[in-house]
Design a protein that fits this description.
The chain is built from 23 helices and 24 strands. The protein is an alpha+beta fold and about 675 residues long. It is globular and about 75 Å long. Pfam families: HATPase_c_4, SLFN_AlbA_2.
Length: about 675
């Protein structure tokens, strides 16, 4: 099949989910490394017949597309080459560009049963993953983790802990759990059982019929155990739970409230859950009123509180508790973050669609279900998104990082419909025309205005509507004269009629948000929480996290903060949030115009010195490509300044926007 799609390459560049490869000599050997990396990460698109140069993507073409297709299908079905063929016939297309032929290969994310996808016969030598800097070979422990996640029959938390017994459980936790369960289901037959039988029903105690080994399971100890027993070297030594409130007006106050493993309470999952839920329910800053009865007492809980509770349980039951960093819940002024060690067992797209339940810790899931928390129907994330949508807040976002493996759910409490953009849209199309649109249509226009374009996939992550309904929304807005359609099929995207809202409108919107100053050091020297092996560290290393806190905002080694640099507020977290928002028009899209990408780099570096890794992480782009095609150009123009101008290749080189370049 040949399709005309030249327009797709006007602004296409390599990144985390796009790879160009010259194929003049046939199938390149590195093709299979990228195939493995995309399959083991989040999927992506490989283009054969395109070469990335300093000037952009150059279409070289392939001489014999039919022959190359035959070779490709023969190779991918050869177990000596790769262990899994994930592709269907329509995942591979031949494109005609400038009278040349290019192969477009869509690689999906592999399922948990299919991972690891590897090159050759040895998974420990041929497994790859993908980050902003390209493909990298997996460590042995990472491959072992993928193998461990493969089996749905044996859950991670079902392992029997030899040499542990009932004395390692916290009696108060078991008693409180029984009381909570009884208040919900007073006549449940399990409530009359002795502790070991009760735990066995929940999956917290098990007997192996083959070996006769009997005792607590990992799930039982995690949920009800004494802290000392949980963190024993033979149990879960990496166990860590941490709740942090960052609401203090004083920027020197690191946390306004904190709950962590400090010896003052039995830090098991049940106690952590109960304490965090109580803090969420008592959080007056949420400003979400509870329903009240005639006597003025609270009745039930709001959809927001239910969503936050669901997010907490998701982190607890889906975590790889043997992984690094532990469970971290953070409450900021304008958002919540829930992060846990491990990788996603389903793709983000599958999680958004719902209907499929995959859980790493099935016994923990059962334990929380008996309290009315957690979901087996695969609709947990959908419930959270629906609750946020009902508040007209920006949609939750789910992020997966590697080295260490972590998943983070961000729940922003910021309006979906900024007044500035709504006013600009009303001014452009007329008050009467806009008033006739429904909420999803207005949100689609605001997204197109703010991000420059919108796609069906982008809206699926924001709206609760089905993909087919979103297609109808987009077509309707085109028919009504609000949007222009570009591209076809997977490459289709939509822009506002009349073009993007001017950049000064973007600045006005950003300026209207409560955001902190970037010109403050983000890590205090000597802080124990900054050490790489700290139990309370942020867990995201600089080269994987979209923003590296210890780099941004710090003054140059040779000068004070530049006069005219963006200033304002100044919490570390607000700086990170600001930079991530500035990066969104690029980071959320696979294809952007080069001028937009460079403008975004200048906007980011206007808030303090950033390294190449920081910029690449924020924009979700390949670092080498950014340096060679964009940052070097901006430096040459004088728009970006070097922190070490006398040593351009300095290993600690960082960049800052020259005064007056981003106004």
């Amino acid at each position: 099949m040949v399709s005309q799609q030249l327009h797709l390459f006007d602004s296409l560049s390599e990144g985390r989910d796009i790879e160009f490869k010259s194929a003049r000599g046939g199938l390149p050997r590195s093709l299979w490394e990228t195939y493995s990396a995309f399959a083991n990460t989040a999927g992506g698109v490989i283009y054969l017949g395109i070469k990335e140069t300093d000037e952009g993507a150059v279409v070289q073409g392939v001489d014999d597309p039919d022959g190359l297709l035959r070779d490709f299908w023969a190779a991918i079905n050869n177990r000596q080459k790769v262990n899994e063929n994930l592709l269907k016939a329509d995942d591979v297309e031949v494109l005609e560009l400038d009278n040349r032929y290019v192969l477009e290969i869509h690689v999906p994310r592999a399922s948990r049963e299919q991972r690891p996808v590897y090159v050759g016969l040895d998974p420990y030598e041929g497994s790859y993953r993908r980050d902003h800097e390209g493909d990298f070979k997996c460590r042995r422990s990472e491959v072992q983790g993928m193998f461990a996640d493969q089996s749905d029959a044996v859950a991670a938390d079902s392992r029997i802990l030899e040499h542990f017994g009932l004395e390692d459980f916290d009696e108060a936790s078991l008693r409180q759990y029984r009381n909570r369960m009884a208040s919900r289901q007073p006549s449940h037959p399990w409530l009359s059982l002795e502790d070991t039988e009760f735990l066995a029903k929940l999956g917290g105690w098990r007997r192996d019929r083959a070996t006769g080994l009997e005792g607590p399971t990992v799930a039982g100890l995690l949920m009800f155990g004494r802290t000392q027993a949980i963190t024993d070297n033979e149990a879960v030594p990496a166990f860590q739970v941490d709740y942090r409130e960052r609401l203090a007006a004083d920027e020197n106050v690191r946390w306004s409230d904190r709950l962590t493993v400090d010896g003052t309470w039995e830090a098991n999952l049940f106690q952590f859950y109960m304490r965090v839920v109580q803090k969420i329910h008592n959080d007056d800053a949420l400003k979400i009123p509870f329903a009240r009865n005639a006597q003025g007492y609270r009745e039930g809980q709001t959809v927001v509180h239910e969503a936050l509770q669901e997010a907490l349980v998701n982190a607890l039951i889906h975590a790889d508790h043997a992984g690094q960093g532990g469970i971290i819940v953070e409450r900021f002024a304008e958002h919540f973050e829930f992060s846990n060690p491990g990788t996603l067992l389903l793709s983000v797209e599958q999680l958004i669609r719902g209907g499929v339940s995959e859980c790493r810790n099935k016994s923990l899931q059962t334990m929380f279900q008996m309290l009315g928390a957690g979901d087996r129907a695969g609709s947990g994330l959908d419930k959270i998104r629906s609750s946020w949508h009902a508040q007209h807040w920006q949609s939750p976002s789910l992020h997966e990082r590697f080295r260490p493996d972590r998943v983070k759910l961000i729940l922003p409490m910021v309006s979906l419909l900024p007044d500035g953009f709504l006013q600009a849209i009303r001014h452009r199309f007329g008050e009467t025309s806009v008033r006739g649109l429904d909420e999803d249509e207005v949100q689609t226009l605001v997204t197109a205005a703010f991000e420059g374009q919108v796609t069906n996939q982008r809206l699926q992550s924001m709206l609760t509507a089905h993909r087919v309904d979103i297609t109808q929304i987009l077509r309707g807005l085109v028919d009504k004269g609000f949007l222009e359609a570009h591209g076809q099929r997977r490459g289709a995207y939509y822009t506002l009629v009349g073009g993007k809202i001017p950049d000064n409108q973007d600045a006005a919107i950003l300026g209207s948000r409560r955001i902190g100053s970037a010109d403050v050091p983000l890590n205090e020297p000597g802080s124990p929480h900054n050490a790489p092996d700290s139990a309370h560290s942020e867990s995201f290393p600089p080269h994987n996290e979209p923003f590296s806190p210890h780099n941004a905002g710090r003054e140059s080694h040779s000068e004070h903060a530049t006069s005219g640099r963006a200033t304002g507020p100044a919490s570390r977290e607000d700086v990170q949030t600001l930079l991530e928002r500035i990066a969104e028009p690029v980071s959320r899209r696979a294809r952007v115009r080069p001028e937009l990408l460079r403008q975004t780099i200048l906007a980011l570096c206007n808030h303090g010195y950033l390294s190449l890794r920081d910029i690449a992480g924020l924009l979700r782009r390949d670092a080498r490509n950014l340096r060679d095609r964009h940052i070097s150009v901006l430096v040459e123009r004088g728009a970006l300044r070097l922190e070490y101008p006398e040593v351009p290749n300095h290993r600690k080189q960082r960049y800052v926007t020259a005064v007056g370049e981003n106004k």
